Amino acid sequence: MVISPKIRGGICMNAHPAGCAQEVKLQKQIVEQSIENSEHGSVQGPRTVLVIGGSTGYGLAARLVGAFGYGADTISVSYEKEPSDKRPATPGWYNTRAFDLLAEKEGLSAVSLNADAFSHDTRQRVVEILQEKGKKIDLLVYSLASGVRPD
C-alpha cells in the first residue's frame, strides 16, 4: 500500500511506518545521549516499568527512558488500530512496533499489549506476565488518553 499524506486543516491525519520508526529511533538516541552527558553520575533506575498508554507522547517517552536510559524491562498497554487493506495503522501502533524492534536489538525485555487498559482481562494478563517473569513493578506510568471510558 502506498501511503500518501492526508492533511485536513493543516493537520496530518495519517502516519507512515518508516517515519514513525525513524522518530522512535531518534528519541532513543536522544535518551542515550542525555544519559551519557548526565552530570549526576550513575543513578540506579527502575528495573521493571509498566506504562499504561505507552504508544505515544509521555507514555512512549517514559518507556524509552526506562528501557534505553536505564536498561529496564518494560510492559506497555495501549489500544491502537492495526493497518488494514484500506488504511494505515495509527501512529501509536507503528511506534510500538518500532520500540519493540529496537528493544529486541538491544537485548531488552519489552512486552507490548494492544488491548483495552480498562478491561479486567487486560489487567489480568499484565499480572500474569509479571508473575511469569518473576517481576514486580518499580515504576508505573499512567499516560492514557481515552475518548471514552466504559464504566
Descriptive account of the structure:
The chain has four helices and six strands. The chain has 151 residues and is α/β, with parallel strands linked by helices. It has one domain (17-35, 45-96, 107-142): Rossmann fold. α2 (57-70) links the parallel β3 and β4 (73-78). α2 (57-70) runs parallel beside α3. The longest helix is centred in the first third of the chain and has 20 residues, at 17-36. The model has no long low-confidence stretch (mean pLDDT 90).
Write a brief caption for the model:
With about 150 residues, the chain is of the alpha/beta class. Helix content is about 40%, strand content about 15%.
